[in-house]
């Protein structure tokens, strides 16, 4: 094991395992210190993160394919919005929009560019799934982009048990959109094996 046919370990032996170990350790540390709370969107930090989110969506998606909600849309009564904090610093956000009595939609998932790859999105997603289960939803949906920039989001949702589906709610087929769903029930492990 670990030899390249000449009895010595190759120089790269264990590098990917060490990176994976470091990433897992950083994720555990972040989750231990992370505070996720319902947010009223009144703070300047969250407003700035949402401005960044909308600007980024408009930069990488055509105008007709930008489905990110503005602050006004996130303040509607059918939307619950969470922010993730560590030592007074905003790390990310996410929202759950009620679609009907049977299900909801994930909206405005965003991790601050300074805090990516630390497990913030996983923690927010686990919180949203947990709330959806608590509400008795039978399904949870998400719309994300089809472009390469959205691949990490699609992978996150797939690891959490989401599968591809057709458009839901008021969405229409769009080559720039990918639709995913997760079936829920009272036995759904809201934390899931992806976390």
Shape: globular
**Proportion in helices:** 25-40%
CATH topology: Aminopeptidase
Q: Over the alpha carbons, how many angstroms does the gyration radius reach?
A: 19 Å
Helix/strand structural class:
alpha+beta
Q: Just give the CATH class.
A: Alpha Beta
Q: Give the total of beta strands.
A: 7
The low-confidence runs, each spanning 5 or more residues with pLDDT under 50, are: 1-15, 190-195
Average predicted local confidence, pLDDT: 83
Q: How many discrete structural domains?
A: 1
> How would you characterize the largest beta sheet?
7 strands, mixed
Strand proportion, as a percent range, falls in 25-35%
Count helical runs: 5
Strand order, sheet with most strands: 1-2-3-4-5-7-6
N- to C-terminal distance: 30 Å
Order of helices and strands: HEHHEEEHEHEE
Quick rundown:
With 195 residues, the protein is α+β, with helices and mostly antiparallel strands. Helix content is 33%, strand content 26%. Strand 3 and strand 4 form a beta hairpin.
Keywords:
single chain, 195 residues, alpha+beta, Aminopeptidase, 5 helices, 7 strands, globular, disordered C terminus
Could you explain the architecture of this structure?
Helices cover 33% and strands 26% of the residues. The two termini are 30 Å apart. It has a seven-stranded mixed β-sheet, with helices on both faces. Strand 3 and strand 4 (103-111) form a beta hairpin. With 195 residues, it is an alpha+beta fold. The longest helix is centred in the first third of the chain and has 19 residues, at 15-33.
